[in-house]
């Protein structure tokens, strides 16, 4: 019994209920809800409340509304279910390494190689169930992928032990399945019906020669795979290195402060994604899809890398404080591809700075609140001229050249433009000549700098030009 199949028969509906449960501002007194496939205009998913009122899968939309006029009707979205199935696979990957996606609603798991690791089928199944809360699904295990899929897709919720008794129960369960539920062409199903073959047990008893004479090769191939007599090529799931989640809101959001509620579960999923891979994210992009307006992208950055959802939520909250929505938000997409291996961070147990923001975290918070362009960094430059020796930049250059300190004393505060000296001062130190022959900025500079004190007791840094003009260039603290 090495294969386990999970059939998520109402994945989109479960996703809707999870989003409602995560939003504390929504009244959770649920109406009867159905999801309708637009191609056939038929009910493909229905909540328990709708089923109690007589609505069945495959029923037309008009008939369903006639039975219950207050139904909540949603369109079936296969792309959303494919994305949700990817997320389920990511949840199960740490528990079961060999997964096969059977879009849009199925997962096939190779379980034989995992039983020793989990010390038996029961322990393994408990781990699976823990990861799948609170999703609804059918499940079954069997000797072949096709047999497990057939049982699960027909509503079975049973695990068969790999014993003679368990194998006998498996054969009996397969034999009871109607042939009309087999994944075959309609022509083959109609021929089985006309021959009076209504259940799988009658089909399995037919000689292969008789089957090959009356049916095409599709039925022969299916029976060979069902009995595990023919191998089935499988494309095993590989975890994605890029995190991407799409959330279609079932109610429009007009206030930017309210966005933190639906985005927080997505950030928690990002945390799980990063922790499973021992990664830290450096940038997270949140795309807001607006109604009848251009989309808005919120970019959150963490200079040192971050994996915790609470930290990203704090940055998002600062970003939302200055966001004005020109139109209501209909959908949210979160995307992260800039990540790095998580580093070893050591902190002293009794350090007085324990629990405080680091320099990088402080800068990330300021950039989220004020905007990246409003944060300026002081950068040094290779120039002897004081006003040219540094400059402000919105990008911090961590690899900039570290220049040796000048020989003379320098003030703490430098004036943007030197001011002409008007008061009497007392010179204490100098001169210190700073001279530039004109190689920088095509302008020659020749100055004699002094340290002086004015009548108010302030210490000045001033210079004298060759024309005997005196200027104040800075003040000492």
What does the overall shape look like? elongated
Number of helices: 15
Give start-end ranges of low-pLDDT stretches.
24-28, 344-354
- Mean pLDDT reading: 84
How large, in whole angstroms, is the Cα Rg? Answer: 35 Å
Which structural class matches the secondary elements? alpha+beta
Question: Approximately how much helix is present in the residues?
Answer: 25-40%
Beta fraction:
25-35%
Task: Profile the largest sheet.
Answer: 5 strands, mixed
| Quantity of strands, as a count | 19
The N- to C-terminal Cα distance equals 81 Å
Biggest sheet strand line-up: 5-6-1-7-8
Spell out the blueprint of helices and strands.
Elements: E1 3-7, H1 11-22, E2 33-37, E3 42-46, H2 48-52, H3 61-67, E4 72-75, H4 78-92, E5 99-102, E6 106-110, H5 115-118, H6 121-132, E7 138-142, H7 145-153, E8 157-158, H8 164-175, H9 186-194, H10 200-205, H11 208-214, H12 217-226, E9 243-253, H13 260-276, E10 279-290, E11 296-306, H14 309-320, E12 329-341, H15 359-370, E13 377-380, E14 390-393, E15 413-420, E16 425-436, E17 445-454, E18 459-464, E19 470-475
Parallel strand pairs: 2-4, 7-8
Antiparallel strand pairs: 1-6, 1-7, 2-3, 5-6, 9-12, 10-11, 10-12, 13-14, 15-19, 16-17, 17-18, 18-19
Helix pairs in contact: 13-14, 14-15
